[in-house]
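So, read this over?
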Amino acid sequence: MRLLRLAVGSEPCVLCYHAVTDGWDDELAVRPAAFESQIRAALRSGYRPAGLEDVVAGARRSLHVTFDDAFANIRHSLDLLVSLGVPATVFACSDLAEDGRALGVGDLGGSRAAPAGEGATMTWSELRELAEQGIDVGSHTRSHPHLPDVTDDDLRRELVDSRARIEDELGRPCRYLAYPFGDHDARVCDAARAAGYRAAFAQASRMERANPYAFQRVSVYRSDSPWRVTLKMSRIGRMGAALKLRRD
């Protein structure tokens, strides 16, 4: 415990998960027991649950949990967060929410296709239930492209149309965006700002830490040990991730 407290800096921390399940042996799929252990450890170490608005504003030691892709298998993990009083945001692709369609392995960057049922994403009906439960739903674009590679017109459609569709379906503001794969550049960040988002979330970011349109998150994977997650969440771990990107 003392080691955990020493690792916590004063900066906010946003955790980034994808799937949470025992049934998919892929780096993107964290085991439920590991997820619960990681969240409880973060709370014991001194992080304070906070909404994204406070996190983006720089609230000290604030903690928020995000899920990219809106996999249906995260539902029990969201229930756990609600019981612990930890705010969460689910970033959904608006085109997939029509029928809960799964993303392909290439679309995800994962190495193994999800077994039957594990790759399903949440439908609009399921996302409405989350919103009514107090869980924020943000945009993960329309179709999950590598945003730096698309044309200006397609970039605008991916960001503007997805936000408008989410707001129309859920009857709530869609204030935040998560970049697919964490991929972004200056043009993409400018487009996110122009599309009306308050902030946009990357993973590790090579851009300036104060840029709310390249907000750095801590990505958690299936093979991460408890110690590795603690290190990733620390100031040193996050600085190291950003420095590695600058060298690549």
About this structure: The longest helix spans residues 152-170. The chain has one domain: 2-247.
